[in-house]
Each structure stands twice: as structure tokens, then as C-alpha cells.
Amino acid sequence: MFLALMGTMVIAGITGYIAEKTGFTQNGYLASIIICIGGAFLFYFVRIMFGLGFASPGVNAILSSIGALIIVPFHWRR
User: Fold this and answer.
1) Nearest to 31 by CA among 2, 67, 73, 64
2) 49, 46, 26: which is closest to 38 by C-alpha?
3) Number of other residues whose CB lies within 10 A of the CB of residue 62
4) Using CA of residue 42, residue 47, residue 48, residue 51, what is the dihedral sign?
5) DSSP reduced 3-state for 55
6) Could you say which DSSP state residue 71 is in?
7) Which pTM does this prediction carry?
8) Residues of the chain whose pLDDT is less than 70?
9) What's residue 9's pLDDT?
10) What is the CB-side half-sphere exposure of residue 23 using CA atoms within 13 A?
């Protein structure tokens, strides 16, 4: 379980870096990585508590990171 959590955080960080590098977002590298890690961390615990999620923790990490990158910046932008 601990290795799945650490792997989720690493995959989320890589997803945030790639999203910023490719131009998917313009938040800055650190902000995108923090947003991705927060979204993946939240979804990881939702999966543990309620059993909601996809087949593997890696797919959960990628999809939750991308979802957090879409939701968080647009929520605060006017």
C-alpha cells in the first residue's frame, strides 16, 4: 500500500511536468506538479475509502492528475 502511494505521487509529478512542458497548461512547473500531486493524493484516498477507481493505481494517478489540472486552474481563473 505504501509503495502504491509513493508510485502515485511520482506518476502525478511526472504528469504535471509533462503537462507543463508540452504546453497543456501555463501554470508554471511547480504549480502544475503541486496541483497534480494534490489531485492524485485525493483520488488515492477516495479509492481506499470507497473503492472507486479504475483497474490500476497508475491509471488512477494519471487520470486524476489530468482532471486536477483541468479543474483547479479554470475554477480560479476569471
Assistant:
1) 73
2) 46
3) 20
4) positive
5) coil
6) H
7) 0.86
8) 75-78
9) 95
10) 0
Please answer whether residues 71 and 36 qualify as being in contact, where contact means their C-beta atoms are separated by less than 8 angstroms.
Answer: no
SS3 content of the chain, % helix, strand, coil (to 5): 80, 0, 20
From the number of C-beta atoms within 10 Å of its C-beta (0-12, 13-18, 19+), residue 35 rates as buried
**C-alpha cell of 14?**
511526472
59: containing domain: 2-76
Tens of pLDDT along 34-53? 999 999 999 999 999 998 88
What is the b/e burial string over 9-31, where b = at least 16 CB atoms within 10 angstroms of the residue's CB? bebbbebbeebbeeeebebeeeb
Domain count, the chain: 1
